[in-house]
Amino acid sequence: MKNIAVFTSGGDAPGMNACVRGVVRASVNHGLRVFGVKRGYEGMIEGDIQEMNARSVSNIIQSGGTILISARSERFLTKKGRNKAVENLKRFGIEGVVAIGGDGTFHGAEKMVKESDIAVVGCPGTIDNDLYGTDFTIGYDTAINTALGAIDRIRDTASSMDRLFLVEVMGRHAGFIALEVAIAGGAEGVLLPEIKGDTEAVYNVLLTGMEKGKGTNIIVVAEGDQLGGANALAAELKKRFGIKSWVTVLGHIQRGGSPTARDRILGSKLGVAAVEALMEDANGIMVGEVNGNIVHTSFRDTYRKKKKLDKKELSLVDILSS
Ligand code: F6P
User: For the whole model, what pTM was predicted?
Assistant: First the structure.
């Protein structure tokens, strides 16, 4: 393998830049030529590909987002789009690609592996932490710390006015962000996509809290929870129990900001590991970190096998908010 490319795809995540830097610097160290593809699969289809060197990734380790720009590509879902992308990679003599992204990115990469002789190795880049084959995804640690900073501020105003706040966090169909933010933020309750939501249970938490002298309540709601998010819960609480609440949807704030040390280190390690995997002829796999070791997991398993929420963490929310 002499020429490789790197791209970022899907929702950007803090630490993606550290990962790109790891890929580029490892390539340079191993004497490979390395190319950057802009705007994920979209740029691949359009041939937006440029050679990079060690200096192309100077001073980016501390910045959020991705210097390569990211995109969600409809065109790559078609065979025609994928053929064009492969054709463009070949024009640059690219034999291997590092794909930094989440499950959507790996679905696409899996197809490319099947349909071409270009090797693809993935790095888990998503704030959602929902990929099997790695304890943590790049961006997750920063996202939960960002959400936590917001919740701490909300607690200041909530406790000053004895109010109920419903704080909605991201995570798509996974509750990792919500659960850990709820524990670290001292939330009174949490609603997750993985567990059937129940407005009455939330009401009971509030009642019990009141009996124990609590005036302030913060409920963390995952955007993908089964009741339909924080606004839906607020409407139900009002309609069924006459309870007024204040809703804060944290949204894309969770995707931005300077990556934490953990995300910089994880991104760097996995970027280097991905290049080394390509050099060892790995293909169709994601590199991840499990119990401190670098492991390879097939693209298919990263999204088909489900990384489980730690149910013990869920009971912690109840115990700690008593
Ligand atoms: O997958 C990362 C993520 O931020 C999810 O948590 C969220 O549901 C989604 O992306 C939002 O996507 P977009 O930025 O395309 O609206």
Answer: 0.97
